[in-house]
Design a protein that fits this description.
It is a single chain. By secondary structure, the protein is an alpha/beta fold. 40% of the residues lie in helices and 18% in strands. It has helices at 3-14, 18-21, 35-48, 61-68, 88-96, 127-134, 155-158, 177-191, 195-203, 205-212, 228-237, 247-252, 269-273, 298-305, 308-311, 316-319, 327-338, and strands at residues 27-30, 55-58, 79-82, 102-117, 124-125, 137-139, 147-149, 169-171, 221-223, 242-246, 257-259, 261-262, 280-288. The strands form three sheets. Strands 1, 2, 3, 4, 8, 9, 10, 11 and 13 form a nine-stranded mixed beta sheet that branches. α3 packs across α14 (298-305), α6 crosses α8 and α9 packs across α10 (205-212). The longest helix has 15 residues, at 177-191. It starts with a helix and ends in a 9-residue tail after the last helix.
Length: 347
């Protein structure tokens, strides 16, 4: 860390009210998907060390990154959990507020699943069918190159082999990393099944994103907020509906929901680990290097999270549903943390 960064952090801390300057615990915000993993690490860390249990808030990846990037010092979070990689524009915002040195910690993988109530008939869907169900605009069925407002009201309207249920999919808000991952891995992938739209991605990326990422707003897709448990309750009330979750939530709530098949693959631990399940994503957290050595226990928390007993192949995070990184990848990450290697400023 540069001498200038240390000086700036010292000035920020000295300028704070005494209560803030005396903070003796780690503050973490961000992804609701990473939240349960961070929580179990925090609880074990608090029991096994002399440090206080970290405070963790599930704000969604986007909301958490905004809080994290708002400044240096004990008034701001030390760590942000994210179910997607931080965006270049977000790094710019960090840098504008003095958060110039950030360590990226890739912790493992998760899948995006379409959950159903246990009483519901199993659904088998393709990403193309999901795009046609949830996009605000879809290709005209007869005229190539033309888009129309999504007319599909039931799954059978898309494919007669699917049930004639009204399309109803509950999902997270735009600030959620799960929403970002669903858009990238499902909506955009289904959109590319149409050759002229796949070509559009090469010629006019902005229009491609407007066409392929925008969800419909007529009630077929329902923004249910960041509360996955609320979505489960709504699935019980309407067993014909689907809910968008992270795989880890399915793993922890298999007594209440099951996962639909996507492109012929079930959302299973082995299928996500070997790459055959098509809708999987990396999970991260980000740490301010300026806070290491200032916030009590921060370095030790990183060591706990990246220990074999936590994120290893037989670790307690795998038992919670996180798909571990290969051993060589875990070694690379721990080496980066030990060296305090920050992301390059141009990201």
């Amino acid at each position: 860390m540069s001498r200038f960064t240390w000086l700036m952090l010292g000035l920020v801390v000295l300028s704070m009210p005494r209560a803030q300057a005396a903070r003796q615990y780690i503050e973490i915000v961000g992804s609701s998907t990473v939240y349960p993993f961070a929580t179990v690490v925090a609880e074990r860390f608090g029991r096994a060390t002399v440090f206080r249990t970290p405070k963790i808030e599930a704000t969604g990846s986007g909301g958490g990154i905004k809080l994290f990037c708002a400044g240096l010092g004990l008034a701001y979070p030390d760590i942000v959990n994210a179910s997607r990689r931080i965006k270049p524009a977000e790094m710019v915002q960090c840098q504008r507020h003095g958060v110039t040195e950030v360590i990226e910690v890739l912790i493992g993988y998760d899948g995006i699943i379409l959950g159903q109530d246990l009483s519901a008939s199993p659904m088998r869907l393709s990403r193309k069918e999901l795009y046609l169900a949830l996009a605000a605009q879809v290709p005209h069925p007869q005229r190539a190159g033309e888009l129309i407002a999504n007319p599909n009201q039931t799954w059978a309207d898309i494919n007669p082999a699917l049930p004639a249920y009204e399309i109803a999919v509950l999902g997270p808000p735009p600030t959620s990393g799960t929403r970002d991952a669903f858009v990238d891995l499902v909506m955009a992938a289904g959109c590319r099944e149409f050759p002229w739209l796949a070509q559009l991605e090469q010629t006019n990326k902005h229009r491609f994103e407007q066409t392929c990422h925008r969800m419909r707003e007529d009630g077929a897709f329902i923004d249910a907020g960041e509360n996955d448990n609320l979505i489960v309750q709504k699935l019980k009330a309407n067993p014909k509906a689907l809910g968008i979750f992270g795989y880890s939530f399915l793993e922890q709530n298999s007594d209440q929901i099951k996962g639909a098949m996507i492109d012929g693959y079930p959302p299973a631990f082995a299928a996500i680990a070997n790459g055959s399940y098509p809708v999987s994503r990396p999970l991260y957290f980000y740490v301010k290097t300026a806070h290491i050595g200032v916030v009590p226990g921060l370095r030790e928390y990183l060591a706990e999270f990246t220990s074999d007993k936590a994120w290893g192949e037989e670790g307690y995070l795998a038992q919670k549903g996180m798909i571990p990184l290969p051993k060589e990848s875990r070694t690379k990450v721990t080496d980066q943390i030990a060296a305090l290697n920050a992301l390059p400023s141009e990201r």
